[in-house]
Amino acid sequence: MGDGALTRTPDRPLTGMGRGNKRGRERIGQPPELLRRLLRAKDRMDAASHEEWPVPRLARVSGVSEAHFARSFKEAFGVPPHRYLLTRRIERAKALLRDTDLPITEIAFQTGWNSLGTFGRTFRDVTGESPGELRAREKAAGHQLEPVPACFLSAAHRPDLKTAVLEKRRQDADGSMSGSQQMEVS
User: Fold this and answer.
1) What range(s) does the HTH araC/xylS-type domain occupy (predicted)?
2) Rounded to an integer, what distance in angstroms lies between the CA atom of residue 108 and that of residue 122?
3) Torsions phi, psi for 129 (to 5 deg)
4) Residue-wise burial string across 6-37, b where 16 or more C-beta atoms lie within 10 A, e elsewhere
5) How confident is the model at residue 180, as a pLDDT?
6) pLDDT attached to residue 163
7) Which has more pLDDT, 171 or 157?
8) Which residues contact 66 (CB under 8 A, 6 or more apart)?
9) 20 to 30 A from 168, CA-CA: which of 21, 26, 60, 186?
10) Is the same domain home to 10 and 64?
């Protein structure tokens, strides 16, 4: 286990990298198998950020022990799982405040908060303004759509080519050659 390999036994979840020194782990990085497992849990949080995601549930999703999950998640993504989830919830709430006319209470519940007071306090701590202040500021500023980059426009209007251009030219050349050859033979 000290060689950095991940191991699993029927009675224990995935563990990895042993108890080597922390500097060695940071220099080596995390094994791809562990990163895939962490990404699976992160993707689940992204898809359902309104749900409760305690570390034991996340550890089950990723198939690693709770302590190993919490430590590895922070090492891989730079923040603990709870802070990541909090960030996703605040981002979603900001988008709903900006883009909809839903009541703030409804937005709080849709984004996973059980209490309007906790939502408002946390929102203010993170953003520096209350949900109502953010909504008023965003509505006053109005949203003008930014211009779409030319590369996106050209990609959207790109023809649907099923055959490579060179292959198409070769087919056209073969078709025209056989036609002219037929004329000469006749």
Assistant:
1) 39-137
2) 11
3) -150, 160
4) beeeeeebbbbbeeeeeeebeeeebbeebeeb
5) 46
6) 47
7) 171
8) 55, 56, 59
9) 186
10) yes
